[in-house]
Automatic annotation (TrEMBL):
Gene (name only): LOC103333203
Keywords, in A-Z order: ATP-binding, Glycoprotein, Kinase, Membrane, Nucleotide-binding, Receptor, Repeat, Serine/threonine-protein kinase, Signal, Transferase, Transmembrane, Transmembrane helix
Classification lineage: Eukaryota, Viridiplantae, Streptophyta, Embryophyta, Tracheophyta
Residue ranges crossing the lipid bilayer per the database entry: 279-303
PANTHER family in alphabetical order: CYSTEINE-RICH RECEPTOR-LIKE PROTEIN KINASE 29, RECEPTOR-LIKE SERINE/THREONINE-PROTEIN KINASE SD1-8
The name this protein goes by in its record: Cysteine-rich receptor-like protein kinase 10
Database matches in PROSITE patterns: GNK2 (PS51473), PROTEIN_KINASE_ATP (PS00107), PROTEIN_KINASE_DOM (PS50011), PROTEIN_KINASE_ST (PS00108)
Domain Protein kinase stretches: 345-510
Length: 510
C-alpha cells in the first residue's frame, strides 16, 4: 500500500523553507504520516547508554500496564544526566485502549528505525504521535516543525469561500474548547454545515501538558496555516509537536469516544487519499539535510512551473487593499438570515444600546448564538469606518477579544455579527451592587490580566498594530467563565507594522 506519488517542488517563502516532498521518496511505512529526525540535535552511538535508555523508555511507554494519564497521553523520562531520555506520546482523543497502545508500539518501532542514532525525533500516525529527546519536552509549547497535509480533492461547491468561512468558525470554536477543556484531554471534535449542506468534520488537539494559553497560542498558529496549506481542499491538517488541527468532509473520528474503534482506521482520511495521492509539505526551519541534495535534482525539473504559479498568485488579488476587501466580502451575512435569527430585531432580543446603535441577541439556524450590532443610519460611522472595523476585527483572533463573525450590508442597513458573550459587559457587573459581590479578587485579577493580554495582543502580537482608543468597562465583555473580551474596535486606528507613532487626526475616547 503506497498510494503516494512523487511531486517535488521547492518554494521559497518569507523565511522558512517549504518542502513539498512526496511521501514515496521518504520511503515511509504505509501508515506513518510523517516524521522528523532533527539531525542537528545530535546523535548517539550504537550500544551507548543513551540507546539503552531510549529502548527501555519506549518499551515501557507502549507496555500494556502503562495507562498514561488515562486519556491517551504518556509522559516519561529515563536515565541520568547526559543520558536521560524524555518522551511524550499522545493518541488522538477518541482513540483509546488497545488501538492507542498498538499505535504507540508501531510508532516506537518506526521512529527508531527511521531515525537511527538520532537523539531527538518526532513522528505521527493518524491515531497517535510520538516525540523523544535528550532534553525535557514536558510542558514546552513547540510549534515547529509543522507538517501540512491535505486531501488533493477540491471542495465540490461553487461557494468555496462559504465553505472556508464555516470551516474557520468551526476550527476556532474547537480550538477554544480544546484549550479550555480541563487539564486531562485538550481535545475537541465537532461538525459544521457548509453552504452546500455538506458536513465538515473538525478536530483540534493539544498535548495535555500545555497550559491553556500555550495550547490556545499553538492552535491559533496552526489555524493560520490552514488557508495556506489547504486552500480550496476538502480535507487538510496541520500537525506540530504540541498541537494539531484537522478537517475532512467524511467522519474520521469516533464521536462516541467509546473504545475500541476497530473501523476508525478505514474511515480515517484514507477514503479519498487511498485512491489518489496525499502530498505532504514539511516546514523545515533551517534544516538543510542530506536529503536536500538528492531532492534538489528532481526539483530542478519543476521549479519553473512553481515560480509561474507563485507569480499568478501574487498578481491575482490586484494589491493589498482589494485583497482585504475581498476577504471582508467573504464574511458577509444575508440580511434575511440575520433578521430571522433575531426574531426581526425584537425588543425581547435587545441586549443594549451602544453609541452606534442597538445590539441584539440572535441564534443562527445551526444553533450558534450571535450578537448583532445594528448600526443606526446616523451613527456618524461612515462606510469607510464600517469596512475598517470589519477588516480589522475579522483579522484579530485572541481569546480576550470579541470575535467578529461577519457583517451585513443591505440598503441603509449595516450590521455587525459578533460571537455572543453571555455575561454582558463589565460595567453591568461593577456598577450593580448585587452582581459586584461576585467579583472577588481572583476574578478581578483574571479580568485585569485578560484585558491586558488582549491589549498586548492588539498592540504588539497581532499582525496589525491597533490602538483601541475607547477602552472602558462597557467595552469589556465577560464570558461564562468570567474571562474578559475586549469589544468595539470601531475607533481603532490601523498602524502599519514597524510604525510606532500614528497621526491620530480625530479626538475620541472616554
Ligand atoms: C542533547 O545532545 C546534544 C548533542 O549531543 C547536546 O549538545 C545537548 O547539550 C544535549 N542536551 C541536553 C539537555 O543534555
Ligand atoms: C547525525 O547523523 C546524521 C546522519 O546519520 C548526520 O547527517 C548529522 O550531521 C549528524 N549530526 C551531528 C550533530 O553530528
Ligand atoms: C552492539 O551490541 C551487539 C550485541 O551486544 C553486538 O552484536 C554489536 O556488534 C554491537 N554493535 C556495535 C556497533 O558495537
Ligand atoms: C512528566 O515528565 C516530567 C519530566 O520527567 C516530570 O517532571 C513531570 O512531573 C511529568 N508529569 C506527569 C504528569 O507525569
Ligand atoms: C501496527 O502495524 C501493523 C503492521 O506493521 C498493522 O497491522 C497494525 O494495524 C498497526 N497498528 C496500528 C494501531 O496502527
Ligand atoms: C483543484 O483546483 C485547482 C485550481 O482551482 C486545479 O488546478 C486542480 O486541478 C483541482 N484539483 C482537482 C483534483 O480537481
Ligand atoms: C471534546 C470534549 O471533550 N469537549 C468537552 C470540553 O468540555 C466541555 C465542558 O467542560 C464539554 O461540554 C465538551 O464536550
Amino acid at each position: 500500500m503506497a498510494p503516494l506519488t512523487v511531486s517535488s517542488r521547492l518554494l521559497f517563502f518569507l523565511s522558512p523553507i517549504l518542502f513539498l516532498i512526496s511521501t514515496q521518496s521518504l520511503a515511509q511505512p504505509p501508515d506513518f504520516r510523517s516524521y522528523s529526525c532533527f539531525n542537528e540535535k545530535g546523535n548517539y552511538t550504537t550500544n551507548s547508554t543513551y540507546q539503552t535508555n531510549l529502548n527501555t523508555l519506549l518499551s515501557s511507554l507502549s507496555s500494556p500496564s502503562n495507562n498514561g494519564n488515562g486519556y491517551g497521553f504518556y509522559n516519561s523520562s529515563y536515565g541520568e544526566n547526559a543520558d536521560e531520555v524524555h518522551a511524550i506520546a499522545l493518541c488522538r482523543g477518541d482513540v483509546m485502549g488497545d488501538t492507542c497502545r498498538g499505535c504507540l508500539s508501531n510508532s516506537t518501532q518506526k521512529l527508531t528505525q527511521l531515525c537511527p542514532n538520532q537523539k531527538e525525533a518526532f513522528g505521527f500516525y493518524d491515531e497517535c504521535m510520538l516525540r523523544y529527546a535528550n532534553r525535557s519536552v514536558y510542558g514546552a509549547m513547540e510549534a515547529a516543525p509543522a507538517f501540512w497535509l491535505w486531501n488533493p480533492q477540491n471542495v465540490s461547491s461553487s461557494d468555496v469561500d462559504g465553505f472556508f468561512q464555516e470551516l474557520r468558525r468551526l476550527l476556532e470554536d474547537l480550538s477554544g474548547q480544546a484549550a479550555a477543556n480541563g487539564s486531562l484531554r485538550k481535545f475537541a471534535v465537532g461538525t459544521a454545515t457548509a453552504p452546500n449542506f455538506q458536513t465538515i468534520y473538525g478536530l483540534a488537539q493539544c498535548t495535555p501538558d500545555l497550559a491553556e494559553q500555550a495550547c490556545s497560542d499553538c492552535l491559533v498558529g496552526a489555524l493560520e496555516d490552514i488557508p495556506k496549506c489547504c486552500e480550496g481542499k476538502q480535507g487538510g491538517r496541520v500537525v506540530n509537536p504540541s498541537c494539531n488541527v484537522r478537517y475532512e468532509i467524511s467522519r474520521f473520528y469516533d464521536p462516541t469516544t467509546v473504545p475500541p474503534l476497530p473501523s476508525s482506521s478505514t474511515s480515517t482520511g484514507g477514503s479519498k487519499s487511498n485512491r489518489s495521492r496525499t502530498v505532504i509539505i514539511i516546514v523545515v526551519p533551517i534544516v538543510v539535510s542530506v536529503a536536500l541534495i538528492v531532492i534538489f535534482f528532481c526539483i530542478c525539473l519543476r521549479v519553473k512551473r512553481t515560480e509561474k504559479k507563485l507569480e499568478t498568485r501574487k498578481l491575482l488579488p490586484g494589491g493589498d487593499d482589494t485583497d482585504e476587501i475581498g476577504s471582508a466580502e467573504s464574511l458577509q451575512f444575508d440580511f434575511a438570515t440575520i433578521r430571522v435569527s433575531t426574531d426581526d430585531f425584537s425588543e425581547a432580543n435587545k441586549l443594549g444600546q451602544g453609541g452606534f446603535g442597538s445590539v441584539y441577541r440572535g441564534r443562527l439556524l445551526n444553533g450558534k448564538d450571535i450578537a448583532v450590532k445594528r448600526l443606526s443610519a446616523n451613527s456618524g460611522q461612515g462606510d469607510l469606518e464600517f469596512k475598517n472595523e470589519v477588516l480589522l476585527v475579522a483579522k484579530l483572533q485572541h481569546r480576550n477579544l470579541v470575535r467578529l463573525l461577519g457583517f451585513c450590508l443591505e440598503g441603509s442597513e449595516r450590521l455587525l455579527v459578533y460571537e455572543f458573550v453571555p455575561n454582558a459587559s463589565l460595567d453591568h457587573i461593577i456598577f450593580d451592587p448585587t452582581k459586584r459581590a461576585q467579583l472577588d479578587w481572583v476574578r478581578r485579577y483574571k479580568i485585569i490580566v485578560g484585558t491586558a493580554r488582549g491589549l498586548l495582543y492588539l498592540h504588539k502580537d497581532s499582525r496589525l498594530r491597533i490602538i483601541h482608543r475607547d477602552l472602558k468597562a462597557s467595552n469589556i465583555l465577560i464570558d461564562a467563565e468570567m474571562n474578559p473580551k475586549i469589544s468595539d474596535f470601531g475607533m481603532a486606528k490601523l498602524f502599519v507594522l514597524d510604525q510606532t507613532q500614528g497621526n491620530t487626526s480625530r479626538i475620541v475616547g472616554t
